[in-house]
Amino acid sequence: MKKIVLSSFAAVSVLMAGGYKIPESSLNAVALSSAYVANAHGADAAYYNPANMVFSDNKDGAIEVDATYIGLSKIDFKNSAGTVDISSKPESFAVPTFHYVSPAFDEARFGFSIVSPVGLSKRWSDTPASLTANEFTLKTVEFNPSLAYKLNDKLAVAFGLRAIYSSGVVKNAGYKMDGEGFDYGYNFALTLRPDKDTNIALTYRSQIDLHISGDTFMVAAGNNGGVKVSVPVPAVISIAASHTYDNDTTVEAVFEHNVWSAYEKLDFDFSDPTADALFGSARAKNWQDTDTFRLGLTHKYKKTTAMVGFAYDPSPVPNSTLGYELPDSTGKIFSLGGRYDISDTLNVGIAGLIDVKDDRKVHNTSIDGKFTSSRAYLVTAGVEYRF
Hints:
Blueprint (H helix, E strand, L loop, with lengths): L1 H12 L13 H5 L13 H4 L13 E11 L3 E4 L5 E3 L3 E11 L6 E8 L4 E4 L6 H4 L1 E18 L2 E17 L3 E21 L2 E8 L2 E11 L4 E11 L2 E9 L4 E10 L6 E2 L1 E3 L2 H7 L3 E2 L5 E12 L2 E10 L17 E11 L4 E12 L2 E4 L4 E5 L2 E12 L1
């Protein structure tokens, strides 16, 4: 049972593509369903494409502060025999983000972002789901400094460092645990501008292995112990192109490849030899690489900017290893938003998004039934100041 609880924690900790990920870490990204790579142009370019920082028309610095409400609907489950009809509890939480781009230093610029790339809270109160996923919560904070350099008028490159702090709590009827970790990676970006209206971009985020150290407590026996587990946040490669037309309308398309095949298994190291012998064997995951497609439309009219987006986001979780802790399925994302220029240096905006998950039938060694009604909702409000 202890191994199952920890498996739930680790599974949630690595959701960057598919599942309940949070790739939308700014107002523009929410409004455009994250079709915001080639045309990233505000302070949030520091996170989405730092190479674009040196192509900005604003040679001074910029700061953006956003607050995002995330709502997760209940998920309904019925087994094939008709004897189980249960639902998870709905969840909601708030996520702040921060982005900064420095003033231009000749052909270079510095950027810094603070975001929450992963976050989730899920609770099942009814059996059999509550046996493995009674409650688990994960909070993460990523610190991402970056440096960009313009090689010439058509080409710019950037490099950044990523540091992710994670903390989480997992509970069920017999066990509870908490754990945390601090892990590192890097990112790279390149932007080519064949003309003033067209951007072609490539971004790469490295795999980060989350090393989670936790304390466990068995309620019935009153035993304490420790455990360690390492799981991968997969590498992500994005290729994007945008074009701005004469009517100030910009269209962007993004192809995003998530290297989820790195998530082959979970292997736990228990401090207690008996627990390690009973629960420490590796558990196969065998997740699959996914290709996400994103499309965004931005129109600028005087002081107002309007944005809409769509994305098709497949799930990396195969039927054979899907569990109650992550009843994931392919999502279709719809979004819209807008900004208003209060002055030449200050603008405010709001954006919203809905992620509609497909119903999913599952038949494996532990589940035989259908998950339905899964949705995720995001609403973001933000302000950007240029100085």
